[in-house]
Amino acid sequence: MTLFADLLSTVFERRYRLPGRYLRNERPLEDLADELVGSAGETSGLALAQDILSGFENLDDDEKLAFFRTIAGRLNIDPEKVRIALDAYEQSPSKATYKDFMTAAEPRRQELFRRLNRVPGATGTLVDMRANLLRLGGQDPELDALDLDLRHLFASWFNRGFLVLRPINWESPAHILEKIIAYEAVHAIHSWDDLRRRLEPADRRCFAFFHPSMPDEPLIFVEVALTKGIANSIQSLLAEDREAHAAEDADTAVFYSISNCQAGLANISFGNSLIKQVASDLAAELDGLKTFVTLSPIPGLTRWLEREGDEWADDPPDQMKAKAAHYLLNAKSRGDSPFDPVARFHLGNGAVIHAVHAGADMSEKGQVQSGGTMVNYLYDLPKVAQNHEKYATTQEVMATDAVKSLAKTAVLNKNRKGDANAEPTL
Predict the structure, then answer these.
(1) Catalytic-labelled residue, pool 233, 257, 259, 296
(2) Taking the CB of the first residue and of the last residue of the chain, which one, N or C, has fewer CB atoms within 10 A?
(3) Is 50 exceeded by the pLDDT of residue 203?
């Protein structure tokens, strides 16, 4: 009987894992999705949802893209129904006409994702599904709209009220530590010893946000150094032979690495809440902490200089530092927001550009993206909300007088190597 049961199990397992876009009932996933949105039974709905989620994971990239395009079109809004419902609401506002309008205006694919999310453990699978959508979607307008649906739902499912802040230390489970190594996006962790130096000493901290539906997957994490004074280089913070100090002796918390972990949660902001929560918790734990700053990369600097025709590679440190200050204050992208993505993030959170440092990141990555320069963003906790509102309203870049003065000394040497007679320009 045991052998017979094993054989039956193998047969059924193979039948459940047929290749391509079909499951055990040989129906396309798109048809199952359409049926799921229209189903009324909870049990049958869960079975359909499980089939769709399992089937999607077995698709190749072309099949995944075809699935996305089909549900983007088949489960989209009907513009005519939206117009009729809106006209009815305008002519006779009521609970009923408003409900009809809301029903017409919401794409059926949003309900599809809600019903898929009823399956235990489905939230992480849907996050992975969006990662695939972002990877495969390109500039397709219909798929952009589909992505907006997922972003809308994720903004609710992953709002701050659902997130759990957990400290990560050397005693944390190994599978979590492995993911910290894998997801570190700012300063690569090269070994377990490297990780240990960032987590075990008393003057180091790491915190991550988790979601109850994804308890083993960090969403975002921040690494913190507790120091005396404001750090001016990443080498000093991560040196193998540095001397650790008692946390109680520190007066400054330096946020030196913030890494988003889930590609499928792109543009779902957690960093703002994470930094403020960690700063608040550390201030409550350690009375001596008075200053909260980042030590941040400037990833767009050399790209912008090259776009401006500036030959920066042979610049002395002081000139590179001045160019970095000029760039942070004056380089703009669309909408008059800062060109630098890290600057947009921290300024949007209510931070202030505090200081710029040359030779602060001598790694290959640091040299390529910013010529080795880094920047401190200051989080003055009593003023963060005020700074955030001002930036959101005016897009004004908040910076110290020292940084503003430094920026005024910058000279962009356009085409210096190509034209020895070229005049330097600001």
Answers:
(1) 296
(2) N
(3) yes
